[in-house]
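[job 4417] fold queue: 2 targets
>>> target A
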Amino acid sequence: MKFALVSHHVPPSVTGQALVIYRMLHDVDPQHYCLVSPERHDVKNASESPSQFLPCSYHRLPPPFRLERGYRFGLRRVREGINIPLAVVHHSRRIANIVRSEDCNAVVACTGDVTLLPAGYLASRLTKVPFYAYIFDHYSYREWADPVAAFWAHRLEGLVMNGAAGVIAPNEVLRDDLQKRLGVKATVIHNSFDIAPYEMDGVVNRTAVRASEEIKIVYTGAIYEAHFDAFRNLMAALTKLGNRNIRLHLYTNESDQTLERESVRGPIVRHEQLSMTEMPRVQMEADILFLPLAFNSPYPDLVRTSATTKLGEYLATRRPILVHAPRASFVSWYFREHDCGIVVDENDPARLAEAIELILSDAQLCRRVAANAYERARTDFSVSAARTAFTSLLGLNGEPRR
């Protein structure tokens, strides 16, 4: 059994999706798969990690043919509406040729570029092999900013999902959404991570903090429309708490100018994004880990069904996690369901301030939810569990390479 995995980002790219793919396939025999992507990995890229190349065949999808005329007289949408199906056909033929040359028995296509999922499906039909859809984020909801891409995504989604031999979703809320809207039964494979750095001896215990010490609320990762109002609520909550020595430490590549423009201001210490090897220490030294999602964003359904790739990392820290996200979102559901964090699912800074006070005053509560979180990290987000579920779905034996 051999499969072609098609993804806009593949290892050694440092995107969350590429990292999940790397972790899942790292110990799979490279004779069982090849990678297909529009990215070029035959030239050095400073943002990539050379150690995260997978020992398999890499294939690049060249840019598809495009109609370049048609900007005038309001024809841009018409032109782009033609370019998307042209790209699907172009990519599908290339993927089909790769499937034949590599003697693959299946095609796995991931969400990312709007054209790749249907191109992978069409390639599977051309080569008469099974097709598997890996839905890292919601295929149609994610195209909210581009009306033409959204038009095609909504029309192709049902065909692609219902024609798949298997569908993978990274969380239960997205799984249930696919079942409700499309009648598709998806397999949940949570975004896995390497738990080893979080299992070191001497886990930091900062549950009881002296009044004179700084209290560190930590957030690691990107900050954008899916987060802004949750951060504004946090800063308002800190104001309500008065002169407590509490600071928000942000480890992000987002600029100070962006944060200021979005009125995310107050006792903030911004750090540059750190490497994966440095991040566990930062997370485990937090007094509170903050996990936000916006209550008023341009894409509420995408927020509701999203699964951040750092969720497993947060769970493994054995630190108190403060979730501030809409009630219907996956992250709010997960932390309530498993009692593994403090959830504030109302758009209310006052409730957020109360939650911070509760975390700082109730050591027994913090120990309980932190222990539950660590157990969920080991159960739901382990690399071995993700790999076993993935290889089982595809009919591989799942044994690691020798």
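>>> target B
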Amino acid sequence: MKIGVLFEGSPKKPGGFYQSLQSATILKEINDNKMMLEFICLDNETSSLLKKKNFNVRLFSNSFYKKIFNFFMNFQFFNNLILNYKLRHPFTKFLNKNNYDLVIFLSPSVLSYHCGKINFIMNIWDLDHKKNSPFPEHRMGYNFLKREKLINYVVFHAFKTVVADEKTKEELVNIYNCDENKLIVQPFIPYLPQLHEDTKKNYDFKKIFNQFNLPNKKIILYPATFWAHKNHKYLIDAAKIFKDNKNNDYIFVFCGGGSANLDFIKSEINKLALENSCLILPLVSDLELISLYLNSHVIAMPTTGGPTNLPLYESFYFKKIIFYSEHLIYEKELSKCLITIDIDKPAEFCKKITNLNESQKKLITEKAFEFYKTNCSFENFKKTYLSIIEDFLDNRKKWK
């Protein structure tokens, strides 16, 4: 059986890209003579990157014709033409030409509309657009409507839909009234821990960290793209509280891809004269981010979106305390691995971090590391996908 694994994304947008890269890396390790995996890329940059990592790659280039086709797909009359005259999207032709039996989408993708007769598996990462609709990133460019259309299509048309946690599975069933038997839970497995394991003997991470020339203060790290729902404003308010109380022990370090909210965050820092308390780094490399994790005092993530985010598991691996939005905690075991914060009360965060002691840190980080080892296992990930593929093979016997 030939399986196409669609790798969509760019290293310039690191969060989703590196989640897909880690998933692809683990899938590549599956050794099963019943299947052959081919990784489909949409641009030359990503294709070259995967080839350097010895992936079996095929390029589906985004030509001008494909862009025009996708543009007209936004109009109902064009969709009606497709149905009436059985026009085929270039991606449908590409899949048929290359004889794929199954397609795995590592991230949500509108190309799933065009799989034709070929079954597909889709990853849905979150339902933030449904729960956080006031934020501009979910409203601009009709993003809400686009995500609604995609999820409604996927949960009923995908062979299986993969989600990161039980909470998201429960929400999909309750909100979209879909069949829970078609939903598979597979936790995120972050990319940075494996990269650290592979490179820690070859790189001096302390030296990499020192190149930032950060002041000699306790670093509160927030690695997140500058979207409004990531709630950087909460940490700026916390920095203001520390400043008003003449507490100069901490520095907040923000790093992540730029977005529409970056200018606002910069203006808030300048307005409150917090340049010595809040530092925005440009988009850092993987090795630089590892060095920041290793040398941070704690990680803070006051996001409204989730419940699962990559820095959660990354902090568990690096044995760093993470202060995490309490409304996102969905199970008791997880609550023992972090410190919760009320994202409407920055003063509470300031108090909790000030009172944090070494024995508390040790107890929590040890539990968090065990949680990581149990839930972020490569072997479990492989078993999950092999089980889905075996299920598909059983079904395919009915027609092929």
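[job 4417] complete. Note on B: The longest helix spans residues 378-396.
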